[in-house]
């Protein structure tokens, strides 16, 4: 569909139309984001990792997971907008940092031995 | 910078180069996402809502907040990729649902009285 | 009412009677705990800190908060039981560590200036 | 060691000695609790459920998990104290409710088929 900038604009308008800006402080939005992530966890908590990999094949459960991910995205986009953070630029910067901190060779070597000490991606 | 599709591709390559795909089940990634959201909360927990609204004005604190938001974004993008969910489409669908559930007139009326019962945005 | 050991025993029996032990791995229980904490956050997210301090005065909202705290407690007790961790002993040990890391004099001095760098209690 | 009431008193004194009470609103403490739960999740996120069941057998990793559980306990106890909630009574009440909502026979029957719809314990 659209771009992340368009989504950001739509969420901003959604909040403005309802006079919700006073509630949308970074602190409150971070809590709301965490609440939505909690709902996402609840959808996956009793599944094995393997079952979780097939969750979208179940139409009903898949729809719930997709809706929770949507809620997380909406609050994340809103929080970034309120803070003036460019989500994609921030993520790109962090990924570049992580590439330095987790060089390919060392990361591959450590994967088998110490999954915990190898925090994938970031 | 780029689009969310480009970021998704970069995060995917990052994981593949390090042989981290086996760890990147939806269940594990949802936990990692929640862990990063926890770090974001920790940056804002002792601030008043008003202080949180000015957090980016402090270069050091602002940089930490930006980095945590970046981590959240990276895991969210990775989770959506692994599940085959289009983040922007899912968010747009959810926003359309929320527009029906929270009609502008009713939402504005309820804002002052019952902030809790008026879950902004979603 | 009772002691934490009695609660632990009751939660254990509750799970056993329903054959839920296979689901109660530490990983799954930590996710469930996080999910319940997310519900607790949702109850407080749009309140100001001051409003949150009065939340128990509203019978309906207070009952919801109490119920979410109960859920968090139940999963925490269950997780500790499954891991063989003595919650009270672990907390006492950590508090002793924190007393060393945050000496009274320095902590008091820093409170006004740097609330973020003064992580209360732990 | 001690009772939960004694731990509550110790955490209260710890905060008071450092003049941290102004920061300890329910809203802030719920965020701190969520932040600590996020750290706990981070310790378990790349483990399989089976590995998570053996995590305490690794002295170093086990110590980290125990410390995170301690932090969660401390903030939970502090939050309950500030709200005037009796944690054990609240948990007992909730467990009684759950016993009604999840009768043993039905819960056992549904466990195999629908792990998601059978939210263990609560």
Structure summary:
The first copy, chain A, is mainly alpha-helical and 122 residues long. In chain A, 70% of the residues lie in helices and 0% in strands.
Set out the fold topology.
The structure is a homotetramer of 122-residue chains.
Chain A: H1 4-17, H2 26-44, H3 49-53, H4 59-83, H5 87-101, H6 104-111
Helix pairs in contact in A: 1-4, 2-4
Protein name (chains A, B, C, D): Nucleotide pyrophosphohydrolase
Organism (chains A, B, C, D): Micromonospora zhanjiangensis
Pfam family, one (chains A, B, C, D): MazG-like
Q: What does this molecule look like?
A:
Chains A, B, C, D: This is Nucleotide pyrophosphohydrolase. Chains A, B, C, D: It holds the Pfam family MazG-like. 4 copies of one chain form a homotetramer. Chain A is mainly alpha-helical and 122 residues long. Chain A has one domain: MazG-like (Helix Hairpins, Orthogonal Bundle). In chain A, 70% of the residues lie in helices and 0% in strands. Chain A is built from 6 helices and no strands. The first copy, chain A, has helices spanning 4-17, 26-44, 49-53, 59-83, 87-101, 104-111. In chain A, α1 (4-17) crosses α4 (59-83) and α2 packs antiparallel against α4 (59-83). The longest helix of chain A has 25 residues, at 59-83. Chain A is globular, with a radius of gyration of 18 Å.
List the helices and strands of chain A in order: HHHHHH
Cα(first) to Cα(last) distance of chain A is 28 Å
Tally of contiguous helical segments of chain A = 6
Main beta sheet of chain A: none
Overall tally of domains of chain A: 1
What gross morphology of chain A would you assign?
Answer: globular
Per CATH, the architecture of chain A is Orthogonal Bundle
Give the integer mean of the pLDDT values of chain A: 90
- Taking all Cα atoms into account, the compactness measure Rg of chain A is 18 Å
β-sheet strand percentage of chain A:
under 5%
Oligomerization category of the chains in this entry? homotetramer
Largest interface: A-B, 80 and 80 residues
For this structure, the CATH topology of chain A is Helix Hairpins
Low-confidence blocks of residues of chain A: 111-122
CATH-wise, what's the superfamily of chain A? Answer: MazG-like
| Percent of residues in helices of chain A | over 70%
CATH class of chain A: Mainly Alpha
Total strand count of chain A, please?
0
Structural class of chain A: mainly alpha
Protein name (chains A, B, C, D): Nucleotide pyrophosphohydrolase
Pfam family, one (chains A, B, C, D): MazG-like
InterPro entries (chains A, B, C, D): dCTP_Pyrophosphatase (IPR052555), DCTPP (IPR025984)
């Amino acid at each position: 569909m659209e771009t992340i900038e368009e989504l950001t604009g739509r969420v901003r308008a959604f909040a403005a139309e309802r006079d919700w800006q006073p509630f949308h402080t970074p602190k409150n939005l971070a809590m709301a984001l965490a609440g939505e992530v909690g709902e996402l966890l609840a959808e996956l908590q009793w599944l094995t990792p393997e079952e979780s990999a097939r969750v979208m094949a179940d139409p009903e459960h898949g729809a719930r997971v997709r809706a929770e991910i949507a809620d997380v995205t909406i609050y994340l986009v809103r929080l970034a907008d309120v803070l003036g953070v460019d989500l994609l630029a921030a993520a790109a910067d962090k990924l570049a940092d992580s590439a330095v901190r987790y060089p390919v060779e060392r990361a591959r070597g450590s994967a088998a031995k110490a999954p915990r000490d190898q925090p994938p991606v970031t």
